[in-house]
């Protein structure tokens, strides 16, 4: 193609000299642009789509976005957004699903990762069973912009710590990791400045907390960790599980416990549980 382009010339005004034609970005066929874009990640495609009209038009081709969508995208679209696939372009579907979609009364969210299309879920503290949550001597739900759910469960003091949750979801086949997002200390605002209150933090250096995960496919994981993340949010890795059949919903049970009643513990913020493809797990902090 380069040789052919270099052999095309225009006549000058005197008819004697020839000057080469300059190729333009707009001269590239749309089909060729679309083929190149199909090898790129979604963020790269979106950046190149801003170059000109040809790239923008090519970036909307369905064959580019179809492989980047999870295998269960139709289920997510219909079950949680109430939309039918017919009439929607694959790029539009990817854009809709890359934004968090709430369900179960706003206590859970599902979305696809913008880089690789992997399915991710988050479950808020209000979507879990917390022992003593209705007794304000022990727990409080406090509003905060540090949570995607705008609220966290804050433990002042308790002898028996038990947080349980369960989920049934139709995951695409693959390996997934589950995390608890926790922090020691309560964030408050003073004179319009964010300040972390440490007064209730105690008992976490005496015994480790225990995380547990089980699935309907027989996966099981137990991990233990001393909590020491004062003033910072940490994703504590509970364990991994594998989904083999994407057509069957996977049932998951998970828990956070510290039930040694020889001492009290307090000052803990419980934000949420995160489930994501294991390929994304390295990006998260864990104990």
Automatic annotation (TrEMBL):
Residue ranges occupied by any F-box domain in the UniProt entry: 22-68
SUPFAM superfamilies: F-box domain
InterPro entries: F-box-like_dom_sf, F-box_dom, PP2-like
Gene3D superfamilies, A to Z: 1.20.1280.50
Protein name according to UniProt: F-box protein PP2-A13-like
């Amino acid at each position: 193609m380069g040789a052919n382009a270099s052999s095309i010339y225009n006549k000058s005004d005197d008819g004697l000299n020839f000057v080469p034609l300059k190729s333009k970005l707009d001269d590239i066929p749309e089909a060729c642009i679309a083929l190149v874009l199909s090898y790129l990640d979604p963020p790269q495609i979106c950046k190149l789509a801003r170059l000109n009209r040809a790239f923008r038009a090519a970036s909307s081709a369905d064959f580019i976005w179809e492989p980047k969508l999870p295998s269960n995208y139709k289920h997510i679209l219909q079950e949680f957004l109430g939309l039918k696939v017919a009439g929607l372009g694959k790029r539009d579907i990817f854009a809709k699903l890359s934004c968090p979609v709430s369900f179960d009364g706003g206590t859970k969210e599902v979305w696809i990762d913008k880089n690789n299309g992997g399915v991710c879920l988050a479950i808020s503290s209000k979507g879990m069973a917390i022992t003593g949550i209705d007794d304000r001597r022990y727990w409080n739900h406090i509003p905060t912009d540090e949570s995607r759910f705008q609220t966290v469960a804050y433990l002042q003091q308790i002898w028996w710590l038990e947080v349980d949750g369960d989920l049934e979801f139709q995951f695409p086949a693959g390996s997934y990791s589950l995390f608890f997002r926790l922090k020691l200390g309560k964030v408050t605002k003073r004179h319009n400045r964010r300040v972390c209150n440490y007064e209730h933090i105690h008992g976490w250096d005496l015994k480790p907390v225990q995380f547990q995960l089980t699935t309907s496919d027989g996966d099981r994981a137990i991990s233990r960790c001393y909590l020491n993340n004062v003033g910072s949010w940490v994703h504590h890795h509970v364990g991994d599980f594998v989904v083999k059949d994407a057509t069957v919903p996977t049932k998951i049970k998970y828990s956070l416990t510290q039930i040694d009643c020889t001492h009290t513990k307090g000052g803990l913020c419980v934000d949420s549980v995160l489930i994501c493809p294991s390929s994304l797990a390295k990006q998260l902090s864990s104990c």
